[in-house]
Specification:
The protein is α/β, with parallel strands linked by helices. The protein contains ten helices and 20 strands. 30% of the residues lie in helices and 27% in strands.
Length: 340
């Protein structure tokens, strides 16, 4: 497990994302807190974590145990529910359903609840606050249905958590995890001139086309979701890139494939891999027909952590699950529930 901790120590802000509830995100967080020595840690969350029972399923959850000196950004109600004495370092202006976000310093070891902001811009500013209060490493514990905080504008690296609660079928869990890693590790655009042009398009429009002379055409669409007809109308033999602001979805690719063949050998560019909402089936169909997808800002996935047990009462054979994950993935895989 030394390799896991050594890799973590290379980064300043790490996000932990999950494929479902109860897949080991909090276990991963606790493992890092317990075992990483010599660091002043900062903690926050995009959702709510550390409570005794899940507010939706009412199933018991692992608690978050922190050490004295840890800096925490959490909502007022979560602060009041925590079992640690803390000093308030800053009262932010960021409101959540659980109250205003506070920046706090732990005066003792103990259990806490985390509930951070749900808006990426606020999360960026809170991470800056945590850095300003001297944190060497910031960990973002996230909601299972939110991946945007893994975007490189927020975090330097990402850990993906997966496990039996995703599906009762082990192979389904492996397949979904592999597909998610493939999306997160999708090839990035290397041409700096194209990247600069694309960034300019993103400031002005939801969809833009770059041709072989690096000229651009901005499309007047409200959202990329229903933009296939508009894109098909303007694509020609000179089109080289289609820049998408926001989500790239199954619907857009399916609609485009049904309308034209002109997308072939044209590269779709999206901001980062958190904007990809594509099934394996549709993505492979698009690629096999000559479609290309790249991202502008790459995400660094440094590890996958697994939980072979579901709170619904079933479990996978842990060594089989771990070994199959390692066999199918090109990133390090750890079962921190047993390896701590």
């Amino acid at each position: 497990m030394t390799n896991f901790l050594n890799e973590i120590s290379k980064y300043k802000i790490i996000s932990i994302i999950g494929l479902a509830k109860n897949v080991s995100k909090t276990t991963t967080l606790n493992y890092i807190i317990k075992n990483l020595e010599g660091y002043k840690l900062g903690l926050t969350s995009i959702g709510r974590d550390g409570e005794k029972y899940d507010v939706i399923t009412q199933l018991p959850k692992p608690r978050i145990f922190i050490k004295r000196g840890t800096i925490v950004a959490t909502a007022k109600q979560s602060f009041e529910a925590s079992e640690v004495k803390m000093d308030i370092l800053k009262i932010t202006e960021f409101n959540t359903p659980l109250g205003e976000i506070l920046i706090l310093k732990a005066l003792s070891d103990g259990l806490i609840e985390l509930a951070g902001p749900s808006i990426n811009k606020y999360l960026q500013e809170i991470c800056l606050d945590l850095k300003n209060f001297g944190c060497d490493l910031i960990l973002i514990d996230g909601a299972f249905d939110r991946r945007s905080y893994a975007a490189p504008i927020i975090s330097d690296a990402t850990i993906l958590s997966t496990g039996a609660s995703v599906s009762e079928d082990m192979q389904n869990v492996i397949n979904l995890t592999v597909h998610t890693i493939e999306l997160l590790n999708l090839e990035s655009e290397e041409d700096n001139e194209i990247k600069n042009i694309a960034q300019d398009i993103l400031k002005k429009s939801k969809v833009g086309i770059i041709d072989n002379k690096n000229s651009i055409k901005l499309l007047n669409v409200l959202t990329p979701l229903d933009a296939a007809k508009d894109i098909a109308k303007v694509l020609n033999e000179n089109s080289k890139y289609i820049v998408i602001k926001g989500a790239l979805t199954n619907k857009l690719l399916e609609d485009l494939m049904s309308l034209t063949e002109k997308y072939k050998e044209v590269t779709f560019l999206v901001e980062d891999a958190t904007k990809l909402f594509l099934s394996k089936k549709i993505m492979k169909k698009f690629q096999n027909k000559g479609g290309i997808i790249k991202i502008l800002n790459p995400i660094k996935v440094i590890a996958v952590t697994i939980n072979p047990t579901s709170p619904l009462g079933y479990r996978f054979e842990k060594n089989t699950f771990l070994n199959l994950m390692k066999k199918n993935l090109d990133v390090p895989v750890f079962d921190l529930g047993t390896d701590n």
